[in-house]
Specification:
Elements: E1 9-13, H1 18-28, E2 32-37, H2 57-62, E3 67-70, H3 76-86, E4 91-94, H4 98-103, H5 108-114, E5 119-124, H6 139-145, H7 148-156, H8 166-189, E6 193-198, H9 199-211, H10 227-230, E7 237-238, E8 243-246, H11 251-260, H12 264-268, H13 275-279, H14 282-293, H15 298-305, E9 312-314, H16 318-321, H17 325-329, E10 333-338, E11 342-347, H18 371-377, H19 382-390
Parallel strand pairs: 1-2, 1-4, 2-3, 4-5, 5-6
Antiparallel strand pairs: 7-8, 8-9, 10-11
Helix pairs in contact: 1-8, 6-9, 8-9
Length: 395
């Protein structure tokens, strides 16, 4: 059954995680994704321990459902060949700074000459109208600038990075929905367009959803921040034999929790009766919650809170995810043979489409695995391809 984006062709000049994560989603939904790589390949090919060179685990996690086209874009003939590939594409996406992409003659003005209807997406560190425009940007820098590291200081006593590349992944998702929106416009009007997706602005927007606080009403001197999630006492709570995440949320949840704990005094306490009163007393509320949770075992709490509809969950480790009964039941993990890497475990696309399901049709490619096939499909002759091979412009 064809995927949702079957028939869409994406030329992907990105590397690391932000762009590849975005374009993998397109591939999962059925688009043809052409991953254009230098002779050295995407740097993430070389990160982590794999079965063979240039096939590291992160590369394998964000580059499935793609074809690899190796081109040395420092050579004019390789750039000309890429323009011929772009001529038949719907989307072109890159993650280079403007000066670098212009040196390769792949800026929007030149790509638009090749393909006037192209949806062209530049995934940058910073918006090009601001003073940071030329600065390099990686996940660590954006976590710091966005305020995320400072939020972690309230827990760790010093600024800390969140131990996942959240800026890359949030920006990647922003790239995905931005291109999809532009494709809808293209199908309605026939018009392509240029899109700018900056990591800093994407994560700042993401962070401020709940943390605008009083700045929503007083942009000059109001206090930003959502008190509940900034409390040091918002954390998994210790039980007699482990830890649980528990979050009585509604008035009914809290009333049921206090009654289960034999604390009718707290059920009547005006500090905790309504959502508004609780929002002013998170510190004492969460301390009380922690004190109560420590009195029973994890199994007792799970068996008692779940029937009441009070949100509660285990604290899984990364290793626990692979045996989690829910993830296993929904088929979150699959085992597939790779032509060079053996049998690999993949995490399936998380979204279920009734009529156009996403699917893993092929695993991440070897560097340049599809170069000749893709160049031939773009109309290059055998002689032209051979000439590119002879100069090392492709393989």
């Amino acid at each position: 059954m064809p995927g949702l984006l079957s028939g869409i062709k994406v030329v992907d000049l990105t590397s690391v995680v932000m762009g590849p994560y975005a374009t993998q989603i397109f591939g999962d939904m059925g688009a043809e994704v052409i991953k254009v790589e230098s002779p050295q390949g995407d740097i993430m090919r070389h990160m982590g321990v794999g079965h063979s060179a240039a096939m590291g685990p992160i590369h394998l996690s964000v580059n499935r459902n793609k074809k690899s086209l190796m081109l040395d874009l420092q050579q004019p003939a390789a750039r000309q060949a890429l323009h011929r590939v772009i001529a038949g594409a719907d989307v072109f996406v890159h993650a280079m700074r403007p000066a670098a992409i212009e040196r390769l003659h792949l800026d929007y003005s030149r790509v638009k000459e090749t393909n006037p209807g192209i949806v062209y997406c530049g995934a940058y560190g910073f918006g090009q109208d601001g003073p940071y425009a030329a600065n390099p940007a990686y996940d660590d820098m954006i976590q710091g600038l966005s305020g995320l590291c400072s939020l972690n200081a309230s827990l760790a006593g010093e600024p800390r990075f969140t131990p996942t590349i959240i800026a890359d992944k949030v920006a990647g998702l922003t790239v995905t929905y931005s291109i999809l929106g532009a494709l809808v416009h293209k199908f309605r009007t026939g018009e392509g367009q240029s899109i700018e997706v900056p990591m800093f602005e994407a994560l700042a927007s993401f962070m401020l959803i709940e943390h605008m606080g009083e700045r929503t009403f007083d942009p000059d001197s109001g206090e930003a921040g959502y008190a509940r999630v900034l409390s040091q006492l918002r954390k998994p709570h210790r039980t007699l034999d482990g830890y649980l995440c528990v979050l009585p949320y509604t008035d009914r949840n809290w009333q049921d929790f206090f009654k289960l704990a034999d604390r009718d005094d707290l059920a009547r306490d005006p500090r905790y009766v309504t959502a508004n009163s609780r929002s002013k007393n998170y510190e004492t509320l969460y301390k009380t919650l922690g004190d109560i949770m420590a009195l029973r075992t994890s199994a007792e709490w799970l068996s008692q809170l779940r029937p009441l509809g009070v949100p509660v969950a285990k604290v899984n480790s990364l290793e626990d995810l692979f045996g989690d009964p829910h993830l296993c039941a929904v088929g979150m993990f699959s085992r597939m043979p790779h032509p060079s890497e053996g049998v690999l475990t993949q995490v399936r696309p998380p979204v279920n489409f009734e009529k156009t399901p996403s699917a893993i049709t092929c695993l991440a490619p070897r560097l340049g695995e599809h170069s000749r096939e893709l160049l031939a499909a773009a109309g290059l002759s055998d002689g032209e391809i051979a000439a590119l091979v002879d100069t090392g412009a492709t393989c």
